[in-house]
Amino acid sequence: MSLLSGKKILLGISAGIAAYKTATLVRAFIKAGADVKVVMTPASKDFITPLTLSTLSKNPVHSSFTNPDDDNETWNNHVELGLWADLLIIAPATANTLSKMAHGICDNLLLATYLSAKCPVYFAPAMDLDMYKHPSTLESFRALQSFGNIMIPATSGELASGLVGEGRMAEPEDIVSFIENDILSKSPLHGKKVLITAGPTHEAIDPVRFIGNHSSGKMGFEIAKAAANLGAEVILISGPTHQKLSHSFVTIIPVTSAEEMYNAAHTYFKTVDIAVFAAAVADYKPKIAATEKIKKKEKTLSLELEKTKDILASLGHIKEKQFLVGFALETNNEIENAKGKLKAKNLNLIVLNSLKDKGAGFKSDTNKVTLIDRNETITTFDLKSKEAVAVDILNAIINQLHA
């Protein structure tokens, strides 16, 4: 999964020969998991057709304020387009378009959209060598960067004129990498290493039976995905689950039992900055697991159980710089029990779930949590998707790290 996954990207195309590369650029954004819309200057349609870009982006392509082919000449709302985008990328950005952007000239839909955009703006210059070096172009670069716009530098090579030098638009794959790296460098968890546990554990009774619980692992996986999207390097220790996650910043360590999770957590804990223990670890396991399948001979079966190792308490005892987060699933005296666990296990933050809250807990796509920090400050959230809850938890961690 790319950092661009789920991003809404608005690609602005101006009239340069490098516009032919935008077909590949759109495909690269789509492959990265982004939703792409395209706005073209009228003259750019001489270099690549709207039909090509519409087919690749799976969205209509806009190049004028109205759609004259429609019976009612519907309006293309530049404000809505600008507000829709998470990122605006103008590529190729010609000397003409750059100058207009720098001076607030608004004579086409792309420029109106640019002036309406509230999101980060990237521009990839493309022009001939003399134009690229001209003082007016250099002034446009300076002005746009002073506005907070981000320049994707042109490269050197053979130009359309036959000259060799600066002015070639960066290649599509390099544009994607540049944007991903820029997002990463500004991400609040960039440079942080995060350990997360997720899912249930299965404690063997015999080779075919086990003691387990109803945890799906979804909450832990959502936290892992959100942490990676915030720039963290994530180690996800997962018990048996059907959850899937493919992200270049996430390494998944599969385990089955509480003992295996204990060993994996201790292996990685000393190297991390943040540890979030969202797994539902079994509290007890059979004292002796049968090596052969237990036959159904008697009306009753007695199992002697023993406590599993307390992963969270053991790590709280040895923690140094780590920010340690635990989960508490309670059915009564929720706040007091959670506060007790926070102190007893030397946590920085505890996430409280109550089974009394409808839509919270296991096997659900939603959750309702209360966060309690070391100062016993209590923050309660409404019922949300587990994806949104993961962001709330990580925002709370980030805020405390910077407090």
From TrEMBL:
One of its GO terms (biological process) is coenzyme A biosynthetic process. The keyword Chaperone does not apply. The keyword Transmembrane helix does not apply. GO terms for molecular function: FMN binding; metal ion binding; phosphopantothenate--cysteine ligase activity; phosphopantothenoylcysteine decarboxylase activity. Its cofactor is Mg(2+); FMN. Residues 1-193 are annotated as: Phosphopantothenoylcysteine decarboxylase. It catalyses: (R)-4'-phosphopantothenate + L-cysteine + CTP = N-[(R)-4-phosphopantothenoyl]-L-cysteine + CMP + diphosphate + H(+); N-[(R)-4-phosphopantothenoyl]-L-cysteine + H(+) = (R)-4'-phosphopantetheine + CO2. Residues 194-403 are annotated as: Phosphopantothenate--cysteine ligase. Pfam families: DFP, Flavoprotein. One of its GO terms (cellular component) is phosphopantothenoylcysteine decarboxylase complex. Binds 1 FMN per subunit. Coiled coil: none annotated. Residues 189-399 form the DNA/pantothenate metabolism flavoprotein C-terminal domain. Keywords: Decarboxylase, Flavoprotein, FMN, Ligase, Lyase, Magnesium, Metal-binding, Multifunctional enzyme. Its EC number is 4.1.1.36, 6.3.2.5. It comes from the Bacteria. CTP binds at D283, K293, F327, K341, K345. Pathway: Cofactor biosynthesis; coenzyme A biosynthesis; CoA from (R)-pantothenate: step 3/5; Cofactor biosynthesis; coenzyme A biosynthesis; CoA from (R)-pantothenate: step 2/5. Residues 7-180 form the Flavoprotein domain. In the C-terminal section; belongs to the PPC synthetase family. Catalyzes two steps in the biosynthesis of coenzyme A. In the first step cysteine is conjugated to 4'-phosphopantothenate to form 4-phosphopantothenoylcysteine, in the latter compound is decarboxylated to form 4'-phosphopantotheine. This is Coenzyme A biosynthesis bifunctional protein CoaBC.
